[in-house]
Amino acid sequence: MSIASLNWGMILGGFGLFMFGIKFMGDGLKAVAGDKLRDYINRYTSNPLSALLIGIVITIIMQSSSATSAITIGLVRAGLMTLEQAAGIIMGATIGTTVTSFLISINIEKYAMFIIFAGTLLICFFKKQKTIYMGEVILGFGLIFFGMSSMGDALAALKELPQFEAFALSMSKNPILAMLAGVGLTALVQSSAATIGVAQKLYQAGAITFSASLPFMFGANIGTTMTGILAAIGGTTAGKRTACLHTTLNVISTIFGMLLLGPFAAFIQNVFGGLNPMMQIAVANIIFKTVTTLCFVPFTKQLVGLARKIIPGEEPSNAEVDIEEMDGEIANVLPSAAVEASRQAILKLVDVVRMNLVNTQDFFNAKGNAEAKEELDKTEAIANRFDQKITDYLIRLSKKPNLTRDDTDDVRYQLDAVKNFERVGDLDINLGEFFLMVFERKEKFSEQAEKDINAMFTLLVDMFDLAAEVFMTRDEGQYKRLQDMETELDRMEIQFRHSHFERMKNGECDSQIAESVFSDILGTLERMGDHCCNVGKGAVTGKTSDLSDDEVIA
């Protein structure tokens, strides 16, 4: 028998179906539970234990510890998660990935076609989106077992090959060789679950010994870090540290497993030797990863400190959100998390625009100078860059095929909110230019005019803050308050404009420029309030605002 005589079509095709099944089932689970995952990531990663549990849940749903690690690295790179929080999630991912090997070992391959049929029925004959997603989960689950069954008999033939028999004997005698084989295969296919699945099938077929399958499994533990390493290349210091932490944890646990290989193998075979071969490896995988991970938990701070020593440098503050860096790591794997990341980035844009609002009012009251106006222009340029990056990111995100309906709605209202917040910033620059026109001519507004402008400005800042709150909470009651404030702002504009005309008629205005731009200032403030209200409208009703280009003067 030669290598060419093997049924490579069944080996490669079965392996491909197995890999596709894992991905397809994971995509379906993500679609069903995407919003919940996003909330869990936000709420329950405050301490290592809760982060550990979240890492387990995410990995079980995504069927990939590599994907969980890539998401985590993306969130850290974006400044949306600390390295300490990331440590807990990565530890949890190590435990969560054992579920796949356990599912494989259940040995329900004879039912695979029935499972595939059930999943296909749900996908083809039901219109409700969640039912279709559940069909994808079931179909992917069936494909996992069908793929394993297809390649199982073909892999069993490997033991008849003299070359493989010699290699298997070498792995049995040299555990390091078996471990390196596990590292190489996992790095190649980017899935430790797939590598361990192959080991389970080979051991079941008698092609390799149990003493060779364990180092092969340990090697998969290291090989799976390659995804995280690739995700961190060219990223921030925090992202590189997260990848380093992941690699360090898996390397240490693998060394620990290799040192105790003999006693550990004896323990598994003595206690669980009565189980089927695939279940023996699954149990060994679960015990190994759970015990080593739990041993790491008390030393989270020390491990994080070690990662910071290995990768020196300053970490960016949370204000430095880099949307482009997150695109490949989060949007392609878990769009729901990407939607939340963009929401947090929009809040950073809100902070910049609000700072400009307050500074412009201070500039007005201090009868500002050209240098102060130049500083406002620089800050507005930052807001514009933020707007461009977030908008580009959201547009790319909107094209992802695995977005849920809720995620699609979120992307739509976020795009609308970004444009409205950015327009507030643009109009704020217009105000600064109006003020500067007056101050450069050494003119001034009347005392009443100053009071009127400040009254509208103060109300506008309150509206802006409330708009940001409604953007986050989508609270209908707060949106009603925002509408009431807009009505008040409209009333003030009409009243102050009328009073201004009365002052002009009575000859009380002694500043030509201030007299001519005062109505423009009131109109600009009122339009800024409209944009604040548009943010609330999009968040609560889902209806986007119609923004015309002629609204922006800047």
Describe it.
By secondary structure, the protein is mainly alpha-helical. The protein folds into 2 domains: 8-310, no CATH class; 334-551, Phosphate transport system protein phou homolog 2, domain 2 (Methane Monooxygenase Hydroxylase, Chain G, domain 1), CATH 1.20.58. 81% of the residues lie in helices and 0% in strands. It is built from 23 helices and no strands. The chain has helices spanning 8-43, 48-62, 65-77, 83-96, 98-105, 112-125, 129-156, 162-173, 175-189, 192-205, 210-223, 226-232, 237-259, 261-272, 277-296, 300-310, 323-331, 335-365, 370-398, 405-440, 447-473, 476-505, 512-541. The chain is elongated and about 105 Å long. The protein starts with 7 loop residues before the first helix and ends in a 13-residue tail after the last helix.
What distance separates the N and C termini? 78 Å
The number of strands is 0
Low-pLDDT runs: 316-321, 548-554
Instruction: Tell me the domain tally.
Output: 2
| Tally of DSSP helical segments | 23
Computed Rg: 30 Å
Q: Average pLDDT value?
A: 80
The 3D shape can be described as elongated
What's the story with the biggest beta sheet? none
Structural class: mainly alpha
Helix content: over 70%
List SSEs in N-to-C order: HHHHHHHHHHHHHHHHHHHHHHH
The proportion of strand residues reads: under 5%
Please supply descriptive tags for the structure shown above.
Methane Monooxygenase Hydroxylase, Chain G, domain 1; 2 domains; elongated; 23 helices; mainly alpha; 554 residues; disordered C terminus
